[in-house]
Amino acid sequence: MTVPAWLWEASAAALIAVVVAEITLTFRADRGSFTTRSAIAWVGIYVSLAVIFGLGVGITAGWVTAGQFYAGYLTEYSLSLDNLFIFYVIMGWFAVPPGRQHRVLLLGIGLALALRSVLIVAGATALNRFGWLFYPLGGVLVWTAVGLITGRQDSQPDRHGRLLSWLRRRLTADAGRGYGPAGRRLVTPTLLLVVAIGLADVVFAVDSIPAVFGITTSALLVVACNAFALMGLRQLYALLAGVLDRIVYLNTGLGIICGFIGVKLLLHALRESGAGWVPEIPAWLSVIVVVAVLVTTVLAGMIGNRRATMLERRFAVLDVDGDGVWQREDYQRLARRLCDAFGYAADSATGQAVATGQRSLFDALLPHMNADGDQRITRDEFIAALGRTIDDRPRFDAAVRTAARTLVQVADQDGNGALDPGEYARLAAVYGARAREAAQAFGRLDRDRNGLLDTAELAEAISQFFTSRDPGAHGSLAFGHL
Asked: Which strand (E) or helix (H) includes residue 447?
């Protein structure tokens, strides 16, 4: 069964009407761009349109065809997420004001859809005439999948570097109008930016279009998948562009989808070549696989982001001045705060011991964490070093013991050689912990449950703080809070 013409016409009219309504409402509100709430609402509207269209396809042309549409739409939508990164870089480099970004994206994605449609019609015609083309298409997708999963492909900035360099050479000029970085004048009329966005999208659609062809070779259906997916990209850009590089496991999820559809293409090619024993992957299974991979990627990303956030908060405990690096000035300032909090002069025996403990810990970790040799430890260097084997472990262990002993020394007001909950709360307050946080931390750090925190228990926690990647490790609370 084929999709009737009236459904295509009604769907196109509905999509155009929604786009017009969106533009009208957005600019009538004098924003020129999306708020978070409006972006979420419009994403929901465009996704609903795709769902309704799929239901119409199922009713009129059969649920196999509808399954092909849904699988192709989800595949195209997920693989197009990577294209948002290049949009973000282009907008940022040319300093396009937020109020103009929506208009540029709308026209650029419209151009991209037109260019993609030409490629899709040509590709469908070629595939229907030359069945052997499924082999190279499948091979490209499998190769792309391997690169995404193993990390063999370059990072996103490197992958898009050539395109950005080309754009810079052609869109940068010494002119009397335009906007750009300080000290440079850029000729970036809307038309040139639109062309840049459109061409960039098509260049990096090299994986998504073959992937949809792995699900269906109907040119109209592939165009529909692209249209519904691309029209929702602008709202996703407003929501995700700035954090795309922080979405954990995105490349892995996209790689699995590419690999699955690449294998599907190769199996289809074998069947077309007369290998009747090769199984055929039905459309409904494609939908299930794509949805399952996307859901798993999101859930795993949420867990990974929680881990990354906890590790970043560990670093914030050390970065006393909040400038993004842990350096000598930080531990020196911390030592002075500890002395002030407990009434010791900086040149007293206890004050000097505290300074020695902080310095020895920093000096032991500097060669382990400072990757670029600038004598400072950035947040990224700190996180990357956690869990990695420390070359000079004896020196680190000795530094940890020294730091723990001197912290107990400065905070031990009753002279019993250990910290009770009140003494630990005063110590943790120097690191910014509130009383309730300190009480909860003390309960986890007091491993023998004797109501006292001795040097060995504190040393164990400090060691975990600097070596464990587990956000739930009790050592994460060594200094009272995260």
From this structure: none
Q: Of 108, 281, 259, 69, whose CA–CA distance to 194 is shortest?
A: 108
> With contact defined as beta carbons under 8 Å apart, do 104 and 194 qualify?
yes
The set of residues, in sequence order, having a beta carbon less than 8 Å from that of 262 and lying 6+ positions away, is 137, 138, 139, 140, 141, 142, 144, 145, 211, 214
Question: With 0-12 CB in 10 A as exposed, 13-18 as middle and 19+ as buried, what is 225?
Answer: buried
The rounded distance, in Å, linking the Cα atoms of 368 and 382 is: 9
Do 107 and 194 meet the contact criterion of CB atoms below 8 Å apart?
A: yes
Q: What is the pLDDT of residue 434?
A: 86
Whole-number CA gyration radius for the chain: 29
Q: Which residues touch 315 (CB under 8 Å, ≥6 apart)?
A: 326, 379, 382, 383
> What six digits make up the tokens of 259?
């690999």
Contact criterion met (CB below 8 Å) for 148 and 258: yes
User: Exposed, middle or buried: residue 318 (CB in 10 Å: 0-12, 13-18, 19+)?
Assistant: buried
State the DSSP string of 141-181: HHHHHHHHHHT-SPPHHHHTHHHHHHHHHHHB---SS---S
Written as six digits, the tokens of 17 are: 């009407």
Residue 117: Cβ-neighbour burial (10 angstroms; 0-12, 13-18, 19+)? middle
Cα torsion for 206, 207, 210, 213, to the nearest 10°? -130
Across 236-334, the runs of DSSP E, i.e. the strands, are 325-326
Residue 53 host element (H or E): helix 36-61
Burial tier of 375 (Cβ tally within 10 Å: 0-12, 13-18, 19+)? exposed
Give the pLDDT confidence of 159-197 residue by residue, as tens digits. Answer: 445 555 555 555 554 334 444 444 444 444 567 777 777
Number of Cβ within a 10 Å radius of residue 349: 10
Nearest to 150 by CA among 252, 80, 244, 247: 252
DSSP code of 389?
P
The DSSP-derived string for 131-147 is GGGHHHHHHHHHHHHHH
CA-to-CA distance for 220 and 68, rounded, in angstroms? 12
Instruction: Give the domains, in start order, of the chain with CATH numbers.
Output: 5-132+154-244 (no CATH), 319-477 (1.10.238.10)
172 vs 123, 256, 383, 469, CA distance in Å? 35, 38, 37, 44
pLDDT digits (tens, 9 = 90+) for 397-406: 999 999 999 9
> Does the global pTM surpass 0.70?
no
Per the CB < 8 A criterion, the answer to whether 265 and 280 are in contact is no
The encoded tokens of residue 404 equal 């723990």
